[in-house]
Amino acid sequence: MSVAAIVPAAGRGERLGPGQPKALRTVGGVPMLVHAVRALSRARLVDLVVVAAPADGVAEVSALLALHDIGAEVIVVAGGAERQESVSRALDALPDDVSVVLVHDAARPLAPSELADAVAETVLAGNNAVVPGLPIADTVKRVGAREGALELVTETVRRDDLRSIQTPQGFDRGVLAKAHAAAEEFATDDAGLVERLGLPVVVVPGSAEAFKITRPVDLVLAEAVLAERRARGAL
Description:
This protein is α/β, with parallel strands linked by helices. It has helices at 32-41, 58-66, 83-92, 113-124, 173-182, 190-196, 216-231, and strands at 2-8, 26-27, 30-31, 48-53, 73-78, 98-103, 129-135, 140-147, 150-157, 163-165, 169-172, 202-205. It has seven helices and twelve strands. Strands 1, 4, 5, 6, 7, 10, 11 and 12 form an eight-stranded mixed sheet that branches. It starts with a strand and ends with a helix. The mean pLDDT is 92.
């Protein structure tokens, strides 16, 4: 069975501040999108990567990826205004022989190739939806009513059975397509759409290096991870 990876990369990422779309911001001098696509292409099981670029940036993204040693076949399509629309458009662009689909955020550029393989293998073993997750280290509290500008804690949530979910997430192609077709409202990830179908989602161990770059401080951490990889010859 053929495995393809989708990278929705049409968003602007306003929390990183003004500038290029988030996927084109650089880490270690290389755009995040290139890091993400390269890692997916180096996974043993990934045959194809489809990037959903900004609608007015398809040519630019195609040229950017052509400049770098990606390693796998890459298709660039026009994404939509929202992440779900971008994933749906990329799904429509997949060849008929693709049966397993990974969906990966370009904002997680340092997720290791081994994580993509672990997710894909678990889908290939017969699971319709698979997500990588890490235990939550912080204490988690639910808040409710406010006192003026202050929030009030209503509950301390048990974290034993909580996971921080990452990407790439993996799916049976038919299940993912059905989940997107049935979507009536926004979900923060593709697994959330599958959950709405009433289907189980399996969790596999995530990776500390698959963190999401959202704020400027995350870029500092990403640079540190790259420096450590260079030091041990892992780039």
